[in-house]
Amino acid sequence: MNRLMILGSMDEFVSLVQKAKARGITVIVCDGYPDGPAKLYADRAYDVDIRLVDQVAQICREERVDGIIASFSDILFEYLVQIAAKAGLKTYCTPKQAEFLRSKQKMREMFQELGIPCAKNHVLTSDFKDPEIADLSFPVVMKPLNGYGSRGVFVVNTVAEIHERFEETSRYSIGTDRIMAEEYNSGYEFNMTNWILDKEVYTLSIADREKAPFQAAGDIPPICRLVYPSRMTDLVYEEARKIVRKVASYVGITTGPLSMQFFYQPEKGIQVCECAGRFFGYEHELLSYSSGFFIEDLLLDYVYDETAMRKRVQNHSFHLPRIIGGLYFHGRECIVGSTKAAEELMRQVQPLEYTLYYKNGEPISHDTGAKPYVIRLDIAADTYEELDQKSRRILEQMVITDGEGENLIYPAAIPVYPSACHTRI
What we know:
By secondary structure, this protein is of the alpha+beta class. The strands form four sheets. Strands 9, 10, 11, 12, 13, 14, 15, 17 and 18 form a nine-stranded antiparallel beta sheet that branches. The chain has helices at residues 14-22, 53-62, 74-87, 95-98, 104-114, 159-170, 233-251, 284-291, 295-304, 306-314, 340-349, 384-397, and strands at 3-7, 26-31, 44-47, 67-69, 121-124, 140-144, 154-156, 179-183, 188-197, 200-211, 223-228, 256-257, 259-265, 269-276, 323-329, 336-338, 353-356, 375-381, 401-402. The longest helix has 19 residues, at 233-251.
């Protein structure tokens, strides 16, 4: 019987554990969260931080695992390749290759060498001089050089603000006190999911990545909706695919996931934000709803069934047959007073699924490791117009109150698309 190590136990891993067990695989789950939901379904579970590479690799040896999987976040990808290398397990990327998909500086250097368009940027130290960034146009995004989960990321409008927030951003840079400052792109934004097979790019999906308005001075706009498939798929696909092929070849990924986040403006074309050696978190179920393609099955096939993996990827079309929207709600830090109105709205709307992350009386936190959203839900529609109508209703009526009865949910809005994009692909 196969024995599989899965790194990660949050709710998005439950389906992966269940699918692995349905194949007759013994599943061991490991991460530092003792209450991780996926651990309830595993055969064995370890409450060990995945950053303890030697310790987790030793668990792999003791458990006699013959496969290892992780996805959905940068930190899981980074330590997956390290643990796999230590334990002698198959994976699609080496620690050295992974540096180009984790370090923002190495990634930007790669983009420059390959001629891939990206935002003008500079790596800064705490004692940087103002003339060093004189060529940047504001607003500017400050970000850690190699942090996780959008922590320490700010949008600023002056050089003085960069100095003021430098320490706050740099504390999230792992192993360095440097940060990156890059020009802000206000164009249409996309998530592109790909699987590299024999060095060729197979696109699984291109999705519209929509952001809410700024919440406060300096805040990076949080994601509020993902739409599968993108209304602009055919407009951006060819150029985006060529870029992914260049990155895969440069990094040396011959088979495995390679996702890309990028922007598009009609007058400027594509500008790449980042490439990642994993699938995007808290959205892979949208691909399943839209096409019946399950990322979990692909990951399991990669480890245990190469023939099925090839067939699954080669038979899939990125022109997804069903329109799906994932709505993501963020809230300010406070104590949750009542979720009653949100739960009533869910009964009326009847989404494909929804997850309410906080209970009455629980504190909402924005700290590292905190729950990423207050509530998220998935809805389906026959047209983009119908999806927008449903989404607007939910965005306008979503209410979760604090102890004073005030709505703690941040406001959000649907962006305006060119009229030519309001038709079905």
